[in-house]
Specification:
Growth Hormone, Chain: A, 3 domains
Amino acid sequence: MASAILASSMAFIDSTALNVVLPSLQKSLQATGADLFWILNAYLLMLAALILVGGSLGDRLGRKKVFMTGIFVFITGSAACGLSPDTDRLILSRVIQGIGGALMIPGSLALISSSIDEKEKGKAIGTWSAATTMVTMGGPILGGALADAGLWRYIFFINVPIGIATLLILWRTETPDPTRTDSSSHPHLPAGKPSPRPEQKPDTRISRLDLPGATSIALGLAAMTFGFLRMPALGFRHWAVWGSLTAGLILLALFIVIERRSKHPMMPLPLFANPVFTGVNALTFFLYAGLGAGMLFLSLNLVQAQGYRQLYSGMTFLPFTILMILLARPAASLSDRIGPRLFLTIGPATAAAGLLLLSFIGQTRGPAGYWTSFLPGMLVLGLGMSLTVAPLTTTVMRSVSDEHSGLASGVNNAMTRISNVFANAIFGALAVMLFTASLHQQLDTMHWTPATKTAAIAQTADLGNAHVPDTVPAADKAAVSEAYRAGFIGVYQQMLRLAAALAFAAAGIGWVAVRRPAHP
């Protein structure tokens, strides 16, 4: 449990805190907007492309071995990120982090699933969910504090001691190996005690890797991710965007053909014949796409339109974190007793209601107005996610046999990451389009030269960070600045409502797909 929580915490802190330190990072490395885009997404691209491969490798070669390898690669990449003298080497180091994360993240839940007694599995995953969500939502607070102190590099350096501690725990603890052929029996692993059944070397038949399948799924997800990530900058009609998306779809279709014909497929397609497994992964995609989009635009709104400092912006998520700490584990235990369907319906619907409440917020008085503006919606959103996260994770892991738990974790994590790509890319492109249209309407009333209007409109690519161009007449600067702020708040409201719609769709999927307790 300790190693699983610590390893997952590294990945989750890194992903949430980095957004907050970007202004400090940009100033220190003199990075352009395009540089920041790739610093954020180089990691995401590699993670989305390789996470299914990482889960399959763990199932076949030994989860502890692959898990430890992933941790080592991840902290190596983290140290390289912290030491990077320029943006090019930082982007390369983020790629290394992504490779390590793809090997590490699926192994975290897979080890819990195969090592904990069936009766306590829900409680264990609830503990994991509460702990990892706490550090995930605490990431912006940590990032804000470090950014204000000019110590952005420590967002990466902090992973090194955590990773070393995790490796020491795993090195001293023996775990059962579910990759052996008699994987139907897995002893309970008491806290602090080594398993009496050490990890054994898997046989040749189980270790045989599906290289064609691994290659096609990795390249397919990489191409899809690349296409989505380039869409905001280039537009869908650009050949690099539609070409990447088309190539990704073809490669994913090829992957399905390969898996159907392979004697040793990395993803047994009959898993998706299980309606619970398929349904909860669809639920994951819609819910986390909505949550990712909502959190992205909420964070931008707080800093760029409402005037919050980076630290204060991070602290607005504290109610969310506290609710997760208090409710995630009890929700998991109760879900074990009465079944997950109710939680996977009410939870996403409540989260959607929270996003909807947040969408009605306009211009506020800044941090002084937080208690009556953002807090109510944040509490409702936190309540919904607290009811959902642990039952959702438990349902995914219980919907397959222990033999495929690493793959199940990989698939579910891939849904989360790919949905984040969807949120960042599709919603980002849509937001720029809506912001541009709104600004066009307001600027049409101003009698400027075409060059001045073009310069003002070009700033919409920066959304809430848009700055009034020097070519704008001095008498109009205040009006244009207000138009930028009002336009961005309008975009924020529309994005939050779309995010709420995705979360409501997730609730519907939960009600339809999870009709019985999910067991293999």
